């Protein structure tokens, strides 16, 4: 059953009297128990989507169209129009978040335990002693000694704080966890541990996951399906393994080329996408990736390709692959030497 339905979501910011079209007509679904990743380079609109889902957009940000339905046996709510009371009711129990910066999310004046206990007691009728016991168990599950319930956030290392956040987000076994760059600020080994813990805990709880990251290896380790974002739009959606082995959008292919191989082989060439994403002010007609795309044709400048179905379960927004061309084969035929991806 579908748990989250994001339908035609558009979000704008206003800054210096200009309108920034940060998210433009994005639609995707997450099934119960499914892990979905949103991936794309900085500024593509991923965090804006996460903030809209949580109703945490800053004052200058506004959802201009679309809906975000959260639906299961006990909830049916459009998160865009829900009241703060309705949101408070589902927070922790149905919707929890692990954010980019745990230090900001954890309140510095309360102990870790006090914050987890409060979340538990807000939603469940349990004694403080029971909630404290559960907080300790949760911390142990993420590899933190349960004595640490009485520590303040600043007394923990960055990695421990992030794990404490994960423990807290899982405290009420929420239906959906939104993890926005949960490992970005951490060293590689801690990153691996944290991803393992998100994986194990969400397996145990059986919840859905929306993983937001610029790092395709994080998506490939944790997600069943992936949506690739570029300049505020979804340009490709499908099962992670299929999308990463046989991309249907040139931007996805570019992203993959720019990363070391997912298996960690070091002898492959890294190839970068030249140029920069467009500014999202006064948006021109046509495909937003056109200026950076080695496959671009005249028609790509005339209208913006819509996300269209490909093989079952897959969608991409590209005229070239919609015509059935395979990006790998087509590359040698159409792309001149000067237009090829640049080798690093
Ligand atoms: N508060 C804001 N005011 C004005 N513009 C903003 C604001 N926040 C984000 N933007 C703009 O909206 C667009 C999308 O940004 P967003 O942070 O959602 O992207 P992202 O893919 O999550 O990138 P990152 O990983 O760097 O956070 C960008 O052009 C960004 O500059």
Automatic annotation (TrEMBL):
InterPro entries: AAA+_ATPase, ABC_Ni/Peptide_Import, ABC_transporter-like_ATP-bd, ABC_transporter-like_CS, Oligopep_ABC_C, P-loop_NTPase. It is a peripheral membrane protein. GO terms for cellular component: plasma membrane. The keyword Lipid biosynthesis does not apply. It is found in: Cell membrane. GO terms for biological process: peptide transport. One of its GO terms (molecular function) is ATP hydrolysis activity. Keywords: ATP-binding, Cell membrane, Membrane, Nucleotide-binding, Transport. Its main location: membrane. SMART domains: AAA. Pfam families: ABC_tran, oligo_HPY. The keyword Cell membrane applies. Residues 4-256 form the ABC transporter domain. Gene3D superfamilies: P-loop containing nucleotide triphosphate hydrolases (3.40.50.300). This is ATP-binding cassette domain-containing protein. It comes from Haloferax marinisediminis. The lineage of its organism: Archaea, Methanobacteriati, Methanobacteriota, Stenosarchaea group, Halobacteria.
């Amino acid at each position: 059953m579908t748990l989250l339905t994001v339908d035609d979501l558009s979000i704008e910011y206003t800054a210096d009297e200009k309108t920034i079209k940060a998210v433009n007509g994005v639609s995707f679904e997450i099934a119960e128990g499914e892990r979905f990743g949103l991936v794309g380079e900085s500024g593509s609109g991923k965090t804006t989507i996460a903030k809209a889902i949580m109703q945490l957009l800053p004052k200058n940000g506004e959802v201009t169209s679309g809906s975000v339905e959260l639906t299961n046996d006990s909830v049916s709510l459009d998160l865009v129009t829900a009241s703060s009371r309705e949101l408070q009711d589902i927070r922790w129990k149905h919707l929890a978040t692990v954010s980019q910066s745990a230090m900001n999310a954890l309140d510095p004046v309360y102990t870790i335990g006090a914050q987890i206990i409060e979340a538990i007691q807000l939603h469940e009728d349990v004694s403080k002693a029971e909630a404290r016991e559960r907080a300790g168990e949760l911390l142990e599950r993420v590899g933190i000694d349960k004595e640490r319930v009485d520590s303040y956030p600043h007394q923990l290392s960055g990695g421990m704080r992030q794990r404490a956040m994960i423990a807290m987000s899982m405290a009420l076994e929420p239906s959906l966890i939104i993890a926005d760059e949960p490992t970005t600020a951490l060293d590689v080994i801690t990153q691996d541990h944290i991803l393992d813990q998100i994986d194990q805990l969400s397996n145990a709880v059986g919840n859905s996951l929306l993983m937001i990251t610029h790092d395709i290896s994080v998506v490939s380790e944790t997600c069943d399906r992936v949506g690739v974002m570029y300049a505020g739009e979804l340009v490709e959606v499908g099962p992670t393994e299929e999308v990463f082995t046989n991309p249907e959008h040139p931007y996805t292919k570019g992203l993959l080329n720019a990363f070391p191989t997912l298996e960690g082989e070091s002898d492959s060439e890294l190839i970068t996408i030249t140029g920069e994403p467009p500014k999202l002010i006064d948006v021109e007609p046509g495909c937003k990736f056109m200026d950076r795309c080695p496959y671009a044709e005249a028609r790509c400048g005339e209208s913006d390709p819509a996300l269209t179905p490909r093989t079952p379960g897959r969608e991409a927004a590209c005229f070239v692959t919609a015509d059935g061309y395979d990006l790998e084969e087509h590359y040698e035929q159409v792309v001149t030497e000067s237009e090829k991806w640049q080798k690093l």
